[in-house]
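User: Hi! I'm working on a homework problem where we have to compare a predicted structure to a textbook description. Could you give me the structure for the chain below?
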Amino acid sequence: MRASGRAIRFLENLKIPEGPKASEPLKLAPFQKQFVNGALADDVNVAVLSIGRGNAKSALSAGIALAALMGVWDEQPRRDIIVAARTREQGREVFDFAEGFSRSLPEDDQARLKFRYSPKLEIELDGEHVLRVIAADGKSALGSSPTLVIMDERGHWLADQGNALEHALLS
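Assistant: Happy to help. Predicted structure tokens:
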């Protein structure tokens, strides 16, 4: 099965963590499946999803980040997933969704996860794989070699902050 197929199957086995549909299985909209298929294609290194507010970008980002952390579509020896947001509070939304989604994982997988809330927002898997939330200033990205970067709301960042983060992650 292709990486995107494994990712979609993983995402649709998660349970919605909050709101009126809490505890129901996550059902991806056709445009979300199309995005995952394109973003995880073999020849793609950068994917952009630009849609209006309220279309579950944060939830989708969180699900993809959690799938990457769990090694759903690859067997990277040390997975380092970065969720970069304009502010820590904005990144907290994605973190909270990832934490909520993790409660729908099998109990043995849940037991492998460790959550940190201070000073950094992190989810660690098996003591070696990490999902981290960082702010757009890029200072907390130094020294990392990310296997996946999710840049939330990039268009709203101050140009110098977003450029600094991109430079820190790409150098």
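For your comparison, note the following. The beta strands are 80-85, 113-116, 121-125, 129-135, 148-151. The mean pLDDT is 87. Good luck with the assignment!
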